[in-house]
Amino acid sequence: MTQFLPPNLLALFAPRDPIPYLPPLEKLPHEKHHNQPYCGIAPYIREFEDPRDAPPPTRAETREERMERKRREKIERRQQEVETELKMWDPHNDPNAQGDAFKTLFVARVNYDTTESKLRREFEVYGPIKRIHMVYSKRSGKPRGYAFIEYEHERDMHSAYKHADGKKIDGRRVLVDVERGRTVKGWRPRRLGGGLGGTRRGGADVNIRHSGRDDTSRYDERDRDRDRERERRERSRERDKERERRRSRSRDRRRRSRSRDKDERRRSRERSKDKDRDRKRRSSRSRERARRERERKEELRGSGGGGDMAEPSEAGDAPPDDGPPGELGPDGPDGPEEKGRDRDRERRRSHRSERERRRDRDRDRDREHKRGERGGERGRDEARGGGGGGQDNGLEGLGNDGRDMYMESEGGDGYLAPENGYLMEAAPE
């Protein structure tokens, strides 16, 4: 199958050329001996240059020296440029310097985003403005940060010179000065080595903050106003914090009070529900006793003994005085079932809280006290009126045993208490 492969693949299986024969070496390299021994550089000294003919060594310039040299060269170059420009500088013949120099105001450190209309609005408060000239860069066309404002009256320029220095426009505090190029002899601009006037002497240690104006008290007053405003804001913040703390404490107290009131209302509702439930239970038991009594009377009447018995007037009338209620039999009102209910009722009464019992005792004591006061007043009235002029209040028939008399007038199974008007069950015998 290999004979069918192309030549380029058959070349991959071709054998390599045989290794050529080389005659063996007589001696190995480490077996050979050097006939000439090693030597130093002494034989070659005569080939070196004579030190007397060599040039003196040159000293290289360090980095600090190079920077200092460049700085000096720059200062010298700048001094030459300033001298050249001073020879050509003439503010009186400047085409851009127009108008009256004594009515012109110089404004520097202006924000680059401030427009001419903004400057006009800010400086028109001191008087009418005749002309505003903002200086722009000749190469880039961007504002340089200063301008010249010419007023119509010299007094307006003086007013702006005194009051507008240090005014903040668009977030930057501007510098205001008079035009000194045409008014002060020998004055030079900053680019020619001059300054911004006698009030701008140098750095922050010797420089006046705003300007050396006559009415410096205005700036002191402004600083005092700023300090007072800052203190007022701090006190206001402290008062707000204290007010917020008091409000939070008041909210907590109201929340706790509402929680206590809610718990008290819930307990009161539960007590009212328990009282209503007990009242309904007692009324149902009273109706059940009356029904059983009527059935018993009807049975007795049907058996032949009902001719001599009186008809009950209503469902709650007392049973006849034939004997105690316990002798009616196991099915009567005092049967085992009724005794169990009485025990449950006594157990529930014993489970009342101490506070309710104390409140009931206080209420009973107050009622007894008031009843005794009314009885004493009634006795005094009868003594004064001879016993015939007293007022009839419906309670004259009640003596010391008035409560017992009232109880005897009701049914035997329950009585209507004169204190609260509730239908109460009689205590078990």
From TrEMBL:
Family annotation (SUPFAM superfamilies): RNA-binding domain, RBD
Ranges for domain RRM = 103-181
Bias-annotated ranges (Gly residues): 192-201, 385-400
Q: Provide the primary localization.
A: nucleus
Compositional bias annotation for Basic and acidic residues: 60-79, 207-245, 260-277, 285-301, 336-384
User: What Pfam families has UniProt attached to this entry?
Assistant: RRM_1 (PF00076), U1snRNP70_N (PF12220)
InterPro entries reported in the protein's UniProt record: Nucleotide-bd_a/b_plait_sf, RBD_domain_sf, RRM_dom, snRNP70_RRM, U1_U11-U12_snRNP_70-35kDa, U1snRNP70_N
Organism domain of life: Eukaryota
| PANTHER family in the record | U1 SMALL NUCLEAR RIBONUCLEOPROTEIN 70 KD, U1 SMALL NUCLEAR RIBONUCLEOPROTEIN 70 KDA
Self-association state and partner proteins as the record states: Component of the U1 snRNP. The U1 snRNP is composed of the U1 snRNA and the 7 core Sm proteins SNRPB, SNRPD1, SNRPD2, SNRPD3, SNRPE, SNRPF and SNRPG that assemble in a heptameric protein ring on the Sm site of the small nuclear RNA to form the core snRNP, and at least three U1 snRNP-specific proteins SNRNP70/U1-70K, SNRPA/U1-A and SNRPC/U1-C. Interacts with SCNM1. Found in a pre-mRNA splicing complex with SFRS4, SFRS5, SNRNP70, SNRPA1, SRRM1 and SRRM2. Found in a pre-mRNA exonic splicing enhancer (ESE) complex with SNRNP70, SNRPA1, SRRM1 and TRA2B/SFRS10.
Q: What does this protein do?
A: Component of the spliceosomal U1 snRNP, which is essential for recognition of the pre-mRNA 5' splice-site and the subsequent assembly of the spliceosome. SNRNP70 binds to the loop I region of U1-snRNA.
This chain's protein is named U1 small nuclear ribonucleoprotein 70 kDa
* Gene expressing this chain: SNRNP70
